[in-house]
Each structure stands twice: as structure tokens, then as C-alpha cells.
Design a protein that fits this description.
Layout: E1 10-13, E2 22-25, H1 37-43, H2 62-70
Antiparallel strand pairs: 1-2
């Protein structure tokens, strides 16, 4: 269980309404938060579960949520 990183990891390249949106991925590993979703996927190579609501905030304790998920292993 991770939290959403504050780091943007992609930037649009030539955004043209006629073409598909293309992007460039760039992760700054020096400032990457070790408890974030990007770190879990890009650095640790594991699946990330990040609970968020529509306004991109977590309304639950991540520790409690992780314990509930692990109870079903």
C-alpha cells in the first residue's frame, strides 16, 4: 500500500489535437519518496495499491487499509 507521489513523471511531447498524445517518462530517483506509488513500480518493481478519492486524497489510514488487505491473504 502506497501513497500517491508528489512527483510528476511524464511530460507531453508535441501535444497536437490531430495526433495521439505522446509523452516522455522521466523519474527523478534522487527526490523520489520511498513510500510512493512511483517508487514501488519503478524502483522496487512491485504492484502499487494507492487508495484515493476523486480529489486525489486518501480518506483512510494507509496502515489500516494495508492490514485489511493482508487479512485476506
Amino acid at each position: 500500500v502506497t501513497r500517491q507521489s508528489r512527483q510528476n513523471y511524464w511530460t507531453p511531447i508535441n501535444p497536437d489535437k490531430r495526433d495521439r498524445l505522446q509523452y516522455h517518462q522521466e523519474i527523478d530517483f534522487d527526490t523520489l519518496e520511498p513510500d510512493s506509488d512511483i517508487y514501488a513500480i519503478a524502483s522496487a518493481g512491485v504492484v502499487s495499491v494507492t487508495p484515493v478519492s476523486l480529489d486525489l486524497t486518501a480518506r483512510v489510514s494507509l496502515t489500516d487499509f494495508e492490514q485489511q488487505l493482508r487479512a485476506h491473504e
